[in-house]
Amino acid sequence: MSNSRPVRIAIAGGHRGASFTSALELLQDDIELVAICDTSEQVRVRWIDSNPSLRDYDTFEKLLDDREVDAVFVATPMALHAKQAVQALNAGKHVLSEVIAAVSLEECWELVEAVEKTGYTYMMAENYCYRRETMFVRNMVESGAFGEITFAEGGYIHDCRDLNIHTDGTRTWRGNLRAGSSQTSRGNGYPTHSLGPIAQWLGINRTDRLLRTTTFVTQSAARHEWARSVLPDGHPDSEAEAWANSADSASTLIQTEQGRVISLRFDSASPRPHNMVHYGIQGTAGAFVSRRHDEEEPLVWLDGVSPGTSPANFNYPGMARPEGYEAMGHPEWQVLWELSDRYEHPLWREHGEDALRSGHGGGDYLVLRDFARAVKSGSKPPIDVYDAVTWSSIMPLSIQSVRQNGIPMDVPRFDRNS
Ligand SMILES: NC(=O)c1ccc[n+]([C@@H]2O[C@H](COP(=O)([O-])OP(=O)(O)OC[C@H]3O[C@@H](n4cnc5c(N)ncnc54)[C@H](O)[C@@H]3O)[C@@H](O)[C@H]2O)c1
Questions:
Q1: Is 96 in a helix, a strand, or coil?
Q2: b/e for 11-43, b at 16 or more Cβ within 10 A?
Q3: Whose CA is nearest to atom 24 of ligand 1?
Q4: Closest Cα to residue 121, out of 387, 416, 412, 379?
């Protein structure tokens, strides 16, 4: 499309979509919101009240008939993402999709085929990849600061029990994913916030690949206890059987082609204060650990840069101890931001102030910016369809692995034609 005018975008799913309003205002030269689609009249009315010039649609199909819409931001419930993205691509629209991109391997392949067939821009809005510390660490990894990376870990640990049941006692779409007999919750049900940044650090789908993955889950306890405490006696979802096919916590391991191991945890049921970031990385020359709560800072230790030195370097015969070694002391973590002169990511250096005025630690702004730029220039988006389905496929693969007592599942190579 022409580079001169803003991309005309419509939001489908007006709840999560609303978090993007400040980012849209800041990026109005690149992207313009022209329509809203939501099956809920209440949600549509709220949007129109604050922005009367918007066109509004009560079905996704009507939205796709709008020829003045270039792109659709799919922010509907998770199980609809792949189907609606394929529909939108086939209708000639570019797509920005909320996470996760697809919930089954069949959907992953359908999405890949639709993007390859139509050639429209598809990007997954994995905003955690754009947070300041995840981009900072990415810059460090790419500069070789950690040496050779051997291990990385990530977690999405967020008590979301109140998002399972509406106040009238009916299940939400999240509740439907976690309850019942479909076993959709016995696995890693939301892998991309934790895996996305790690996959970028490790160059997954570029210089390395995800090979195989295994998952173990805990019993289902906290979600059921909570449901029993908020629902009236006799309500079917207050019974343990309603959540028996669910799990409170899932632990996933992934082996990469280069021999690295990735560890992921997903837990949306256990009670604890929320901490958005759970990451760590280990290399041959240093390590990073994210903060455990808002009062802490992310920490890093780099051999030869941070305070202290590893005793492993100099304690063997023939290894020369440098002058002053005794005074160097043991290695000590340092606050990540102390290295910002050297490793702040250029995107954050340039756009950090604007990014922080939008949601999710700046991620929403940078996602939207990169999507608009990819559409306008026709270039490959930074989180393309192959990344989207590779990261999302951990959900169905983890469910398959749990069903088979934790045996490793091969991760498909979705970019077979590229
Ligand atoms: N990236 C993030 O940080 C982040 C944060 C929150 C939610 N999400 C993702 O965003 C998506 C939406 O989450 P949410 O919390 O807003 O859910 P929600 O249930 O609060 O809102 C979903 C909205 O979609 C509408 N909807 C349902 N079916 C529709 C259809 N067929 N067509 C159009 N609209 C439809 C509903 O009426 C509702 O307004 C989920 O996939 C979730 O995983 C991502």
A1: strand
A2: bbbbebbbebbebbebbeebbebbbbbbeeeeb
A3: 13
A4: 379
Q: According to the CATH classification, is domain 130-345+382-410 in 3.30.360.10?
A: yes
Q: How far is the CA of 95 from the centre of ligand 1 (A)?
A: 15
Distance CA 387, CA 393 (A): 10
Q: pLDDT for 319-373, tens place per residue?
A: 766 666 666 678 899 999 999 999 999 999 999 999 998 877 889 999 999 999 9
State the DSSP string of 330-380. Answer: S---EEGGGGHHHH--HHHHHHHHHHHTSSGGGHHHHHHHHHHHHHHHTPP
Every domain of the chain with CATH number 3.40.50.720 lies at 7-126
Query: Using CA positions, which residue lies closest to atom 34 of ligand 1?
Result: 38
Q: Return the ligand 1 atom nearest residue 127 CA.
A: 1
d(CA 10, CA 24): 11
Q: Which residues pair with 302 in a beta bridge?
A: 286
Hunting for tokens 């993205």 — which residue is that?
85
| Residue 190 confidence (pLDDT) | 96
Cα(29) to ligand 1 centroid in Å equals: 26
- Ligand 1 within 6 A of 98 CB? yes
Residues 6+ positions from 167 with CB-CB distance below 8 Å: none
Best residue for ligand 1 mutational test, from 21, 58, 76 (most atoms within 8 Å of Cβ):
76
- Domain 7-126: CATH superfamily is NAD(P)-binding Rossmann-like Domain (3.40.50.720)
- Length of the chain equals 418
Distance 75 CA to ligand 1 centre (A): 5
User: How many whole angstroms separate alpha carbon 249 and alpha carbon 188?
Assistant: 8
Query: With bands split at pLDDT 50, 70 and 90, how would you rate the model's confidence at 182?
Result: low
* CA dihedral (334, 340, 343, 344) positive or negative: positive
Mean pLDDT (whole number) for 99-115: 98
| Spatial distance between the Cα atoms of 142 and 409, rounded to a whole number of angstroms | 29
Q: 375: Cβ below 6 Å to ligand 1?
A: no
Give pLDDT, residue 218: 96
The pLDDT tens digits of the residues spanning 7-54 come to: 999 999 999 878 888 899 999 999 999 999 999 999 999 999 999 999
Distance 144 CA to ligand 1 centre (A): 38
